[in-house]
């Protein structure tokens, strides 16, 4: 429920910003399917993170989501969008080492902390998809238009999920 409320509020604020700036409110027609896809990925990303937080600590989550630049750099490397220099590979190694330190320690107070940690790592991958898939639409339409529509799609899906499952605490 909190994810849906945050997304609805964000969509409203961004929608106001689009309106104030004037001009075309939506991305060009050819990018609309890609931006809808981005909204679905964004919703999945936030729901995975929120569910993961129910099983691990906020401290672990903070350390693990700090791994996102590594997954984005590796994704860009694999897709041939950007080459990693030697120093970049050192960053990948250090970041990976940090994730291993966080996930391999004995988790206190959480019976399913390793599962929660895994979900946070998966959220690094969903954010990588969102970032890399959004590069083209953002370049053609601007970040504000793309983010507003993708957040609106995510808000709609999260609201439907909330209504479908009921507004309840995950604790």
3D architecture notes:
The protein is mostly helical. Helix 1 packs antiparallel against helix 7 and helix 4 packs across helix 6. The chain starts with a helix and ends in a 6-residue tail after the last helix. The model has no long low-confidence stretch (mean pLDDT 87).
User: Count the helices. How many?
Assistant: 7
**What share of the residues lie within helices?**
over 70%
- Based on Cα principal axes, name the global outline: flat
Give helix and strand order, one letter per element, not per position: HHHHHHH
Ranges with pLDDT <50 over ≥5 residues?
none
List the SSEs and their pairings.
Blueprint (H helix, E strand, L loop, with lengths): L1 H20 L10 H22 L4 H8 L2 H11 L7 H19 L8 H29 L1 H23 L6
Structural features:
mainly alpha; 7 helices; 171 residues
Short description:
Helices cover 77% and strands 0% of the residues. By secondary structure, the chain is an all-alpha fold.
């Amino acid at each position: 429920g909190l994810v849906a409320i945050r997304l609805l509020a964000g969509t409203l604020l961004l929608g106001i910003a689009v309106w104030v700036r004037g001009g075309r409110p939506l991305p060009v027609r050819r990018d609309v399917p890609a931006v809808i896809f981005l909204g679905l990925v964004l919703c999945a990303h936030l729901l995975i993170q929120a569910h993961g937080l129910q099983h691990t600590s906020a401290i672990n989550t903070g350390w693990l989501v700090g791994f996102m630049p590594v997954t984005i750099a590796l994704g860009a490397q694999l897709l041939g969008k950007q080459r990693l220099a030697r120093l970049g590979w050192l960053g990948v190694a250090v970041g990976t080492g940090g994730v291993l330190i966080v996930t391999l320690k004995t988790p206190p107070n959480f019976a399913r902390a390793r599962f929660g940690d895994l979900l946070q790592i998966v959220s690094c991958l969903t954010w990588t998809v969102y970032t890399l898939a959004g590069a083209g639409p953002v370049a053609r339409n601007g970040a504000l238009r793309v983010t507003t529509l993708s957040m609106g799609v995510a808000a709609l899906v999260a609201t439907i999920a909330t209504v479908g499952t009921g507004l309840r605490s995950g604790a």
